[in-house]
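Morning!

As promised:
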Amino acid sequence: MTMTEELAPATPVKTHRIAETLSRAREIAIVVIILVIFLATTLKSHDFAHLTSIQQMGTNASLFILLAIGETMVLATRNVDLSVGSTLGISAFLVGDYFTHNPHSSIVVAFIIGIGVGAVCGSIIGFIVTVTKVPSLVVSLAALYIIRGILNIIGLGIQIEPTAIPLSFQKIGFETFAGIPWIFLIPVLVALVVAYAMRSYRSMRELYAIGSNPSAAQLAGVPVARRVFTAFVMSGSLAGLGGVLFLSEFATTNATAGTGYELLVIASCVIGGVAIFGGSGTVIGAALGAILLQIINQALVVINVSPFWDSALAGALILVTISFDRLLSNRATLALRLKGSGARDE
Amino acid sequence: MSSTATEPILVMEGVAKYFGAVVALANGSIKLYPGEAHALLGENGAGKSTLVKIIAGVYQTDRGTFTYDGKVRNFHGPHDSQDAGIAVIYQEPTLFDDLNVAENIFLGRQPLSFARRINQREMRRQSREIFKQLGVDIDPNRKAKGLSVADQQMVEIAKALSKDARVVVMDEPTAALSPEEVKRLFAVVANLRERGVAILFISHRLEEVFEICQRVTIMRDGSFVRTDLIDDITIDQVVRSMVGRDLSTLFPKTVIPAGGEVLRLERLTREGTFYDISFTVNAGEIVALSGLVGSGRTEIARAIFGIDKYDAGSVYINGTKLKGNSPLRAMHAGIGFVPEDRRQQGLVMDFGIDHNVALASLRRLSRGLLLFRTSEDNLAADWALKLQLKYGKLTDEVNTLSGGNQQKVVLAKWLAGQPKLIIVDEPTRGIDVGTKSEVHRIIDELAQSGVAVLMISSELPEVLGMADRVLVMREGRLAATINRADATQEKVMLAATGQV
């Protein structure tokens, strides 16, 4: 006969409650930090709490929220999309170029073009990733430069002027609905819809399954390639939509629009609790992460700290949140070990 | 056996699978009947895994016929196989850590409500229902992360039940289970059989096969050897069919007089793990550290080797106290450690055989700051020969080797460092019968050459066959010391479970 381990309790140790609270805790913690920064800054400068100031923050965060939603879907599958900044740029430029040549065109067409351009970029990346199995880090990094390169060629020396952009289109950038800027409302609505979908639909749950255990997902019959492809198309489309909103906000663009956004987007996701190696994280968390980064940025301006500190703070925030996560989970494991052996001890 | 009266649910005849010039499976043949537990036995590399993967739809057959439910099939993917009612429980867990248990069971088949949304409540209810039928208590709401291996298997079985699987394949399900958990698994197997499920059971533990299976199919070198009723065959015959030759002795322990003391522990204590452990190991002696997993055996080994800290007590090597806690110091003092989990802790899987073997002897092999390939090669070639390693080139990555040969590489790595004491943790876990006896021979030769051996093992026959002395641990304390002459299975078990 063979003998092996002493019985690990067959009944589950109720760790999931803690784990669940922890994952919620992330979102709550960010909300709390946002509020604290907001209040502290307001004490220093009362203008910070003005409606226009708040609206400005929402406007600034909106593009990053949008990109973070798509990035979350990609990250959930244990992939990454570094091309979102370039995609946003080319979408904004092509929509602007379209308006230049068709000054009386409808807004709807602008949205279709922008999202369409993004979807095409996303499909190409998704196709290469799923067919060649080249790591998405490499493929999307290449795409970052290729798309930007194309944009540089077609947009060489061209500045899309506000005069070419229809006023009705520009209104998306500054008009409000119930006090909320449209440009902020759109990403928030998208976030809510995607967040709900990622909880309630099979295909979206499978994104997490793929990131959690890719080989098991394959064995479980999950159409891995199709899902990963879709995630990239979604990410590209949202970046394309981001380009449309970018143009409506600034009413001008050139070949440099969106440069460097990709890392801020990934930072937002990571701060918001999206696991960089896939499998977990919510769109809401990522959106909150984007808002937090923007509010810090604004607060620094208001309290007269050099904006150069902004990057350093963002980096510190990433380190602190991730270290804190690790620490908590290590402590939970330790507690379990001691609990397990303590029972045996006496 | 009443089940033979019915039609088989799954039949494979002369099934073959090639990868280029490599024949992974030459002649896979098996008949599975509803309601039977059918053992599939063979050494590593006998083609069992390939056969299972064909059943699972992961591989497609190149030759032969595969009939399922009366129809000739060739599954084009795991999905095909699952849809047909086949569930495979792999050795390596295939759960999604980040998803909850209910979702793990129903992934891709979650019960839906209006607008094709997942009906969470219904999904949890059905999960609870299945767990109740299985007689296990797992919370469907918890994340799969942190589930014990046994519970992970139960989730896999629940998955199979939720799909009304008619064939369940279990690949080495008991390898990491405690006796209690094995008992629970066997109860579930009986439960499945009553529902008419056919079970294909793969295990290296022949005792278990004889306990729960009704028939057994044996494979060797990619080919079918025989199928028998379990009552018509003996363990000896099974082993002989598996290895294709007679194994005169499984455990070739040579008893030699022990030399001087090499290792001495004095009242070693690590809070919450083990307490007050004192014992010695002499040169040329094999001392087995036995006891249930979780009794502190591995932890003691880790503390001796300096991986874990201890709170009180001391470790002496050749009479000199080992200071501080560091594997590097332990290595310099002459300790070698072959860990239980060789893939994770014992080997650099992407390195070649040569680099792995040289890893613990780098200081000796290097001249100044340089390390010469030729000296690495010579060392590796030397040990490969001594340990009868089966390999292509010395530069082959070790992850291309079989489990048994990987274990030999780990052994070679430490032996090349010329240790005074070697600690082996579960040296033959997951290794096929033929290689097992070779590992035993190597350990025995080591002891004969004067090395002190501390062996941790859960396999009682191995402990009784190999050890000069058996130390039995229970709940972090040394419960008994039994000499080779007095050691019996009963005595060790009684001490380990506290029935003395």
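Chain A touches chain B through 46 residues (CB under 8 Å).

Hope this helps with the figure draft.
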